């Protein structure tokens, strides 16, 4: 017998004695999840306001921009104040064009890259799959956001989202993941809620433990 | 005869409990946690309802573990992940050492994994000559101190910034000040180099999703993200009980874990990994190995009465509310999993005979059961472990215990005798005052650390005779 079979045999033997289901059995429906979870407003405006509030509580920056030229202007302003030298991005229309508009040395993750070069970048600019109002979360995957390192290795992560990517809550976000990738899931799906942080020293909040110290979300 | 772990527990508890400095550190940390945790519970529309749903989901997961594990294996292997099975700690260590040797690895970077503490993985890897670096800040600190984590979620909560500064100065020669931000940046600089050097990244897991074949990792620092992004080989060590049936179950469990673990709505990164780098992806490991660990979890599974303890999501909430944990501290337990959940499961994982004393490290106040997000009946399980321990051949009461109950039983059974005894006790209390605290004091074992409350001047029955009509 293989170790797998041995373990399965022990599990089946253990489960041959039934346990009492004190709190009912069967898996909860999405409606049941929604019934207990934190409330989210019904209208887009309320959800947008909730996302903005959550992002600000998380010490992320959230900005609505009306068009591509305003976004370019915002990015250039950040480039100048933070004195960026190198930018990392990925092959996706919004991320790539706006990175190009910065006129800096640019690393495109999909082309294959040296990890040391990525680490030297001042900023990673990526797209995303969704913004989640309920928690102020940015949903990225290894397919939508230039792989795994782009959104966590450079010290500043900039997300370019479109307004229609806003979803109400976590159940909607998981439904979206299933709808989008159900046939073939990407190797990484990440729910990013604010910039990297730690409280490991005397429970005092410090931003930028290992991942980005800053998270900026632009919404077109 | 007391087991060696019991002796260790008693000695440490005696040392730590009166240590007011330790108590101050823990009270401050817990005070901050309690405030945010309670705010977040109110943020839910129905926190008690959420606990019921979570308990139901875990019941389904654990009681159909065979079905869900088979599905998990099938779905995650479909994307090119190699799944390994380990019945015990030694097998798990050998599987991982085998991968490291195959890959000719030198530097290993690790994110937080209590399972790896359980199998003493770091010792085994270091012994085999690998450089192993813990990347979670708290774990990194306790690794530098060569001590086990103090708490499931906050490994270094027993240390002050001053102690961490001294540690960094000694070990890294880099400690500009005792400011937590400056200290965090020291670790950031040191660990960035390690991510880039590492050949293999090892992680733990918070959940394993059967339906979609994914490992879910909850963290705040981004260290697990980097551990899974940069090295060419990734290994996840996960207990077989970590299964959740469906992807959408995370919609409930991720926020509940964050609320109870740290008082956040969601932790900063909640990431699902389903395989090595896929076709068309920019980066990620070339190989992904998942090691499924039994290590006596099936022993706990076979105990239908306590099976719900396998639903634990390791949020640490029961440790935080436990008066025993807060007094004796995390290291006193001498176990990987401390606090109430550790006291319940350790006798199953490591033997009741050696670890039965943990069942008595409880005031049975039930705060743990009340706070548990998946509704594990913790304090009743401690009682069940006491019952089971007394059924062991070594669990027989001592001569003096038997003698004491021989006297107590008839007195307690006869009201007249009881009444006489309480009257005599009041006189006895006065006489005891003469020998208070000395070696002939009959209750000195009690009064050494506590006051003896006086017996009431009047019993309830006497009071009722006077006033009751």
Task: Specify the CATH class of chain A.
Answer: Alpha Beta
Shape call of chain A: globular
If classified by CATH, what would the architecture of one domain in chain B be? 3-Layer(aba) Sandwich
Give the uncertain stretches of chain A in residue-range form. Answer: none
Distance N to C terminus of chain B? 53 Å
Biggest interface:
A-B, 89 and 110 residues
Q: Based on DSSP secondary structure assignment, what is the total number of beta strands of chain A?
A: 12
**Looking at this structure, what is the CATH superfamily of one domain in chain B?**
NagB/RpiA/CoA transferase-like
Strands of the widest sheet of chain B, in order across it, are: 1-10-7-4-2-3
> Topology as H/E string of chain A?
HHHEHEHEHEEEEEHEEEE
Give the key terms.
heterodimer, A: 220 residues, alpha/beta, Rossmann fold, four-stranded mixed β-sheet, 7 helices, 12 strands, 21% strand, globular, B: alpha/beta, six-stranded parallel β-sheet
Task: Give a brief rundown of this model.
The complex is a heterodimer of chains A (about 220) and B (about 475). Chain A is α/β, with parallel strands linked by helices and about 220 residues long.
